[in-house]
UniProtKB/TrEMBL annotation, chains A, B:
The protein, known as: histidine--tRNA ligase
Biological process annotations from GO: histidyl-tRNA aminoacylation; mitochondrial translation
Family: Belongs to the class-II aminoacyl-tRNA synthetase family.
Basic and acidic residues compositional bias, start-end: 320-335
Length: 508, 508
């Protein structure tokens, strides 16, 4: 170990945009992950675990501009490998590799990596958790889609969010058809779509400027778009669009709107229609969606003051910001994601998102007919909101402390075996302490600790009469003030010695 | 999605030495991981999750020759990063970063990566699972060490291994002291130690040749070593060594042997002494051990015929080998690990291993006094053995199938909402089916399916009198042979229609 000198120089930290998870944060994280997984399992989701890295070519060309965020591994004389960017593409790769599978409900709980600008305050890390549910295989229109949305609602209700979220809905076909009707050229569909997607964070003027000035859209086309993308609603909006002759003359938009109408019928059957909001400005960044898309927004804005991501030295990275400031800045126009990255008062954005992607599997296995629809829960954002709510005094029954330690210290002469402190399981404790022949156990329990007390128990008493004689002391133990523990132990140990002497005398 | 042509050419597979986990394999894996984690949690282990990659310098110089197996990431204008090689060094890095933590029982369940030659048949992959328990912080000699060994035994008993394993024990101080007494020069300590470590797989002659011919040890020194490393036993061996004056004159060996004697007292107290075997040939490869070391060996050899790791096309990679062949080859002398890598009949080796490493934390934070002792369970090997046992007919109650699907199909005219098949949770099913107004539900339950039967149930009956009239049909549903389901449904639907007509007539 003679390398200490060299090691001393090194910076002690985790890699940029990553963090360790321990103690309270780990308990909160685990509570969230376990709860979401359980709900998904109960809805027949089967877990699939894929490697953290894929062949580079598996990920290539699947994420549009975001491909630049993929972590590549060094070529070490073998394959070109990349850390996965999401859990969706590996699922599609797996489906393509397993042509015998025609129908699958997939659960995945795992980390993904994006070499993005980290913004700890927003819960945006380079290594983060996703929890995905995907339905693969043909089904009648909107059947699987509606079930996924029902499960999303079930997840957030089980998490105790109590309706404090909205599932925003749109459909790629409605969106693209609408753009076509407005006169957006085909090569500008995705860029304009991605500009529209910013409307939840930026005002129309800002988005319009991006469309016209940056992306070269005709101003009158942009203004037509405005007439649509400001529309939000429920079944009423579907009915309104059904009366829009221009839109209904576009085959894509027509199909999308008709299926959206069907979806609302099913959502009513699932009793979740009050949780959804049809929003024509929702676009979603990823290329592979082909039908319905959705995004779950938490209804509160959060400044993430409670999100104490440890920095390299273990301190909290974000000072607590007063809520006012957060409210004030909320509507600040921001066009580029980079501009927002260091602003801790930005709202959390979506806590879950997904949609239908019918053609992704056939990217890997041509002519495969494995339509899919899925959702990805943004665990780190859910975690950040949960932490903030806990800080405000909310309780979540699925988040537990570490099991209370029960301490047993056993005293006696030459009883080294019994000096092990801090044993966890009472039964193991007793097993050990009694085998070691310790006459006394000190038990520090949750309840007692609160009162500054602990229990002292006589151990190793087998004789029933003796047990009766000793009463509470040999049963649950007697409760003693912590300050008195030394005195009490000495007194009891003297008693024990006296007993042992008497016994050994009577044996003679 | 016009990239199909390009994509068609790509090889559809996971990266070399990695695999997907799904369905039965995933259930077995999850059963094992959950069981081990639960036992460790019950023993007060708290989960720590670290990033999959660390700064390159964190891992550098910690693994001796094996450092060449570390996966490095491409430098992308930022930090030099490496995928973690084990869960121990990241734990030490975390302890060093958190100087306020003086005592910790750490649980970790996660993947690690080693760019080793994959040998699927032996369960050796490049991406694999470890489950670690580590105690950090000072404790009296062998207290924590004995508890870790007791927990190892508890883990394998809880896994249902029923004593079919041995915990091999040794101590680095005994080993090094013994080498010194035999006359091994200091610079040859670790190389000779690593040669000795091969004695479980190769005969003495082979190991001696490596020591003398490859590593330049004097022949008479090698022969002295033989006198020690063939020794195996329990407390008796400790006592034998305590009478070895040459050995007891070496301070390192003396301390090691005295503490080994203490350890055996504690192991007796834990009632696990029959599970351990003191073996002077156990050396362990890693550099960082400073005291006790241990390795758990499964008592059976396995050819891993049941370990059906899927290859890129989903087929099983290893043809089943007859047991005879495996037995025959078992004793084949092999000096270099590389030589064994393609031999599927080699025994599985250790299923858990660990030891005391008192100086690792101070590699990151000089003068830190955080002695540690820990164990790492080799999940993929435990998985491989479990699969083989399952194939032989053994049952493990902690491995469950996916929850039985319950199918509900509801019939009716223009009732698209109710045509969703394969719903998982009966209550959700009924909720949906009844909300949709379906008059009949078909329930495929586990019990009925075994008998080629299913249940048909009348849904949506609110009226108590009506429920009473319909009896079983409106309660649990009537049991019907699968062949008769069409006929029965038609009959019942006719009844429903008749009722509805009567109702509508009576309302007029």
């Amino acid at each position: 170990m003679g390398k200490n000198k060299q090691d001393q120089k090194q910076d002690l930290k985790t890699a940029k945009g990553t963090r360790d998870w321990s103690d309270e944060d780990q308990n909160v994280l685990k509570g969230i992950l376990d709860t979401i997984s359980r709900v998904i399992r109960e809805n027949a989701g089967k877990e699939l675990v894929t490697p953290v890295f894929e062949l580079e070519e598996v990920l290539k060309g699947k994420y549009g501009e975001d491909s630049k965020l993929i972590y590549d591994l060094k070529d070490q004389g073998g394959e070109a490998l990349s850390l996965r960017y999401d859990l969706t593409v590996p699922f599609a790769r797996w489906l393509a590799m397993n042509p015998n599978i025609s129908n699958y409900k997939r659960l995945a709980v795992d980390k993904v990596w994006r070499r993005d600008q980290p913004a700890l305050a927003k819960g945006r890390l380079r290594e983060f958790y996703q929890c995905d549910l995907d339905f693969a295989g043909p089904s009648d229109p909107m059947i699987a889609d509606s079930e996924i949305i029902a499960i999303i609602v079930e997840v957030f209700e089980t998490l105790g969010w109590n309706g404090r979220y909205t599932v925003k809905l749109n459909d790629r076909r409605v969106l693209d058809g609408m753009f076509e009707v407005c006169g957006v050229p085909e090569d500008k569909l995705r860029p304009i779509s991605s500009a529209v997607d910013k409307l939840d964070k930026a005002p129309w003027e800002e988005v319009r400027r991006e469309m016209v000035e940056t992306k070269g859209l005709e101003p009158e086309v942009a203004d037509k778009i405005k007439g649509y993308v400001m529309l939000k609603g429920g079944k009423d909006l579907v009915e309104k669009l059904q009366k829009d002759e221009a839109l209904m003359a576009n085959p894509k938009a027509k199909l999308g709107i008709e299926e959206m109408s069907l979806l609302f019928r099913y959502l009513a059957a699932w009793k979740v229609v009050d949780k959804v909001n049809f929003d024509l400005s929702l676009a979603r960044g990823l290329d592979y969606y082909t039908g319905i898309i959705y995004e779950v927004r938490a209804e509160e804005s959060t400044s993430f003051s409670a999100f104490d991501t440890p920095t390299s030295n273990g301190a909290t990275s974000q000072p607590e910001k007063p809520k006012q400031e957060s409210k004030k800045k909320e509507k600040k126009p921001v066009a580029e994601d980079e501009d927002r990255s260091d602003d801790p008062s930005v709202t959390v954005g979506s806590v879950a998102a997904g949609g239908r992607y019918d053609n992704l599997v056939s990217r890997f296995r041509p002519n495969a007919n494995v339509p899919c629809v899925g959702v990805s829960f943004g665990i780190n954002r859910i975690f950040a909101i949960t932490k903030e709510r806990i800080a405000k005094g909310e309780k979540f029954d699925y988040i537990t402390d570490n099991a209370m330690d029960v301490y047993v210290m056993a005293f006696g002469s030459d009883m080294t075996e019994s000096r092990i402190a801090k044993k966890p399981k009472p039964n193991v404790q007793y097993k050990f302490a009694e085998t070691a022949g310790a006459p006394l156990g000190i038990i520090l329990g949750e309840e007692e600790e609160k009162n500054g007390e602990l229990r002292i128990k006589r151990l190793g008493i087998q004789d029933e009469k003796e047990k009766e004689r000793l009463g509470e002391l040999a049963d649950k133990g007697i409760v003693v003030k912590m300050a008195d523990v030394g005195k009490e132990c000495r007194r009891l140990l003297d008693e024990v010695k006296l007993e042992q002497k008497t016994q050994s005398l009577s044996l003679k």
